[in-house]
Amino acid sequence: xxxxxxxxxxxxxxxxxxxxxxxxxxxxxxxxxxxxxxxxxxxxxxxxxxxxxxxxxxxxxxxxxxxxxxxxxxxxxxxxxxxxxxxxxxxxxxxxxxxxxxxxxxxxxxxxxxxxxxxxxxxxxxxxxxxxxxxxxxxxxxxxxxxxxxxxxxxxxxxxxxxxxxxxxxxxxxxxxxxxxxxxxxxxxxxxxxxxxxxxxxxxxxxxxxxxxxxxxxxxxxxxxxxxxxxxxxxxxxxxxxxxxxxxxxxxxxxxxxxxxxxxxxxxxxxxxxxxxxx
Amino acid sequence: xxxxxxxxxxxxxxxxxxxxxxxxxxxxxxxxxxxxxxxxxxxxxxxxxxxxxxxxxxxxxxxxxxxxxxxxxxxxxxxxxxxxxxxxxxxxxxxxxxxxxxxxxxxxxxxxxxxxxxxxxxxxxxxxxxxxxxxxxxxxxxxxxxxxxxxxxxxxxxxxxxxxxxxxxxxxxxxxxxxxxxxxxxxxxxxxxxxxxxxxxxxxxxxxxxxxxxxxxxxxxxxxxxxxxxxxxxxxxxxxxxxxxxxxxxxxxxxxxxxxxxxxxxxxxxxxxxxxxxxxxxxxxxxxxxxxxxxxxxxxxxxxxxxxxxxxxxxxxxxxxxxxxxxxxxxxxxxxxxxxxxxxxxxxxxxxxxxxxxxxxxxxxxxxxxxxxxxxxxxxxxxxxxxxxxxxxxxxxxxxxxxxxxxxxxxxxxxxxxxxxxxxxxxxxxxxxxxxxxxxxxxxxxxxxxxxxxxxxxxxxxxxxxxxxxxxxxxxxxxxxxxxxxxxxxxxxxxxxxxxxxxxxxxxxxxxxxxxxxxxxxxxxxxxxxxxxxxxxxxxxxxxxxxxxxxx
Lengths: 279, 552
Hints:
The complex is a heterodimer of chains A (about 280) and B (about 550).
Chain A: E1 14-15, E2 20-21, E3 30-39, E4 42-52, E5 57-61, H1 68-75, E6 83-87, H2 93-96, E7 100-103, H3 117-123, H4 126-129, H5 137-150, H6 165-177, E8 183-186, H7 195-210, E9 214-219, H8 225-228, E10 231-236, E11 238-244, H9 245-248, H10 251-258, H11 264-278
Parallel strand pairs in A: 5-9, 5-10, 7-8, 8-9
Antiparallel strand pairs in A: 1-2, 3-4, 3-6, 10-11
Chain B: H1 11-30, H2 35-42, H3 52-62, H4 68-81, H5 88-100, H6 109-116, H7 121-146, H8 152-159, H9 161-174, H10 181-205, H11 210-234, H12 245-248, H13 256-275, H14 277-285, H15 287-292, H16 297-319, H17 324-336, H18 342-366, H19 372-390, H20 396-429, E1 438-439, H21 440-446, H22 451-463, E2 467-470, E3 473-476, H23 478-500, H24 506-517, H25 522-531
Antiparallel strand pairs in B: 1-3, 2-3
Helix pairs in contact in B: 1-2, 1-4, 1-5, 2-5, 3-5, 7-13, 7-16, 7-17, 7-18, 8-10, 8-11, 8-16, 9-10, 9-11, 10-11, 10-16, 13-16, 16-17, 17-18, 17-19, 18-19, 20-22, 20-23, 23-24, 23-25
């Protein structure tokens, strides 16, 4: 097992040797304990463990295929976990999901789908509207307000394939905002967006932080990490390091995260996959 | 190779078609599943017993099959269709029957009236039932299409055949009513679901892809069903006639009670879709997001599957299991051409499915020998073609109009910029008129446009009072000059950007900027200006970064 030491002692709320929590901490927005996820026996993330401080902007950084998206999905029970546990505000995700807002990767959906931007944003309210009930005027007003916040209210009635990449990303962000969550999980919101969208998203992130909310953002652009985030999780299948940006976002840690050489673990994984294929 | 003499109706082709029909019916009848067998039983025709070989010969000669290629064609058909379960006695029976009974009677006026005005109670109920079925399939199909599971219904339908046959056999064995629709359809449901389960199993347990698993299960189940129908045909007890309606669909043989079952099931499906509309919409659009909100995605997928099962299974009798998938796919696909809103798409698909169902059922009532499934599919296909061409949002016509509009806009922009740049060149050399005119010849050399298209572009620009034409000289109007200056500025901003930021060679920059500038939105131009770090919004038309002759 890979021992991960937290750089900020007050956040260490569980014993890393046993992986057991020392008790649910309702202040901690997200605690991950020894999380392992595998697709077809190939581990995607392995023994991932960290706690996040409340009211911070957290960047998850790592190379392609490091399991960043899988980590977010495993937190939300969207992919089966091989082992490990996740706590959101001291409770299992199932009990606290109303406090979580999710912004999936833009490429994960078919933008040719016959809906307009406002429809997409109201989707964030479906669980609040309840089963069988139709969307009503006040829900559309909430959605409209969220679209105003991200600056594309004038495009509310435009079919989503007619939106630019940045506008699509803003639509997704608005859909998460209507949930009025306390923890936001965002999967590459800055991927392939224009400069003004990037600025708008950063402003919203800061706004969320000022309201005491936490945002966990998968991020690719290493240059902007120190500017945008105050906490960072370096991930490459395992957590290489996590902690405040100042202490953790160092060239040595980045070298470890992006380092080219195959580790023994990678080789074992590869061997297992070959074996599986030959069966 | 010998060809039959050419007559007004090419006899060879007629023969081929007839022989194809005959052999298809031979194969199907042998498996107890085709009209030939039914007709035979209607006419109390006793099968001609005798030597297979001579019978085949006789039949071939009877159809005028003599030439080598015709024989080859028939041999292929024979080897494909006459499977090992085919008993020679049975197919011989059908063969003769199908020769004697291929006439298609044109319905007389009273029959037309009875069907079109729905005078007959049975017809009324059947048409209503099939109309509701079409609507239900349209709505459910919209969801499966958007969930990209369109072919699941096909697998399910094909896999239902062994269930129908097994239910029939079981009923015969235990002495129940083997024609009971509910009984047969429960068998169909069971084996259909088994087929779908097997597809999922194959996909998860092996490395096979979904389409491969689908192909295997679909054909194997259908083959098994055909074999079982062949066995049924051999059974002493029971009348297999009627089972063939499940393969090709036959509304003419439907009873009011059957149609009632279809109507109830369809209403149930429509009702579920209306109630669960927003949940299903979210499922189809973004299942991951739905899962993150606590929506039971797996359960919803099962609901959608159950709706497909419901509509497919009750649709078997009317449309037939080979073609029922068409009712799930075609109306939904056609509806997509008309709208960009999910709820409108669902209702349009329902309407189109309803039209297909009604026309198919009516034509089956008029021509009892036409399989209604085929008619429904053909009507749907006509509706689809119409939608594909004339669809208001995504039809080919509207798209080509849009493309033409764009091309014209681009052409006009090229024209204005061309005149502007030439005029700019002139006025820098010879001071005088502030908007010098340029000749057609100069313009034509500037770009690779034909004289005709240049003239047409100029004519359209004249209509909008952007240019004036005097003899051979083209001059920009005041409005045209302003527009041309804007366009040229945009173009050169891009050129500058490409030269300085993208390191494109100045000789190539004109063409690259050309590709970009026509799709520029105002906010992008603003950004470009900020990036180029000039005094924003007051920037003038920069001077040309390359000599004019480099323009292509």
